[in-house]
Specification:
The structure is a single chain. The protein is α/β, with parallel strands linked by helices and 399 residues long. It has one domain (3-379): Divalent-metal-dependent TIM barrel enzymes (TIM Barrel), CATH 3.20.20.150. The protein is built from 15 helices and twelve strands. A five-stranded parallel sheet has the order 6-8-10-11-12. Strands 1-4-5 form a three-stranded parallel sheet. The relative contact order is 0.15. The mean pLDDT is 96.
Length: 399
Amino acid sequence: MTPAQLRRVREALNSFAVETPSWGFADTGTRFGKFFQDAAAIDLGDKLADAGHVHALTGCCPTVAVHVLWDFKPGEDPKAVARLARKHGVKIGAINPNLFQDQCYKWGSFGNNDATVRAAALQHCVDSVAIGQAVGSEYLSLWFADGTNYPGQGSIRERKHAFEDSLRALHRKLGPKQTMLVEYKPFEPAFYATDIADWGMALLLAKKAGPRAKVLVDTGHHYSAQNIEQIVAWLLDEDMLGGFHFNDRRYADDDLTLGSIDPYQVFRIFHEIHFFAADRGRMPKIAYMIDQCHNEKPKIEATIQTVVMAQELYAKAALVDHAALRVAQAKNNVVDAELILKRAFFTDVTAGLAAWRKANQLPGDPLLAHRRSGYARAAAADRRRRRKELGLTQGGSFA
């Protein structure tokens, strides 16, 4: 790498942080059952310890996203959770309300035709806003399982109006430093008409909610043929891109480690962000978060893989020659424009990553350092014993 490239990689990595998810360290499963890993986290203390371990090795994961029902006990002081996070060297990040688990949500939450259920869902989100304010969280991350499975089951327009009303009401409860992220998903568990099925629906709802509402792009929540980087570019241009949930997919929402299927797509997404920054003279404020649940890969190893891959691809995207790209685009020089992207993508940034890690007193190989640390063995021994004492030996549903 040239000195100029090393400098660009260093600058890119200095401003890049990735949030880990508390649920990514715990035992999860599929709709068919839950499968245990000896070293998987049992409680929030374990989750935050694991997240702190990942941050200590990678240097770019200072915050942890939490699920309200899974991570906060009823009546618990949220500030105690924040203190526990700090004990493990991290902070509480995005607050995720749970609007899909309770029995009352069988027919939806914000889109439910029962006003009582809609009110309960809204109150849960308002409570989540208060938790966020107590722990200093900047983001309220909203994903809804709402939708219908059969034609005629519900009024699509009435459900849309219900979402607009609830999101506006929730937006009014946000603190001045809080941002509401509206996520979308094309299907599952609603297979006929998911209420927020694509980025356009999320964009319209966010705009109607209020100025502190943005769109959250989950890289797994798309059909295989969709051009995610085009979606990202449009949202950037509209100042409506609030954040990402990182994962990879072969089909849709497969929860695979980032870049394990198509690293070039992730690179192209990052390129659009860097290109936007070059044109506007500023890097947009974006929350980069992981959303993965691994049933086969060890939890911490999978998380480290995703973080390291994100750093590598973000650094590669920072090497695109924007001046040359603009010239090629202005001349409709298709071949050169494509090659400019590929030249950056195929650049070996190992030296740049190593230099950045050395400068920040981090292990040169975070995954290898984790394996040599003995952390997983110690956690497995402790949690295997505790799981047995708690009677957690039977597989259940997803989480």
